[in-house]
């Protein structure tokens, strides 16, 4: 069952998929429709999942499931991964590579592989104040509080001088 993101529980489980590029307005509308269709039909052991999604900065797909209503199971999580993999194919975009880093440069969202980010940190091109996206958050509350943070407050901080 699709619900509004702002109404889903703070304890809801979240998965964040970052794209290696921004989506166009046309792509965003298509992806939102596909996400709505997928979530409307998404089940775990035959029971509807109370779930939602958001797309941030034309680049991040956030899927949330209220685990108190009906927990996502291995099969339902696999279904969501297959859905994301299909989006990758449909839009020729990388959404599953967790070894890349997105961060803010002013209002622009930059995307680098981890090796390049580490080099930038070593060269002081990014600092502890650089806003990074911590895609390892696991709950909606964590997403709201700890997703978009200074690098010094995230796992990214280990690469800073």
TrEMBL record:
It comes from the Bacteria. This is ABC transporter ATPase. It comes from Kordia antarctica.
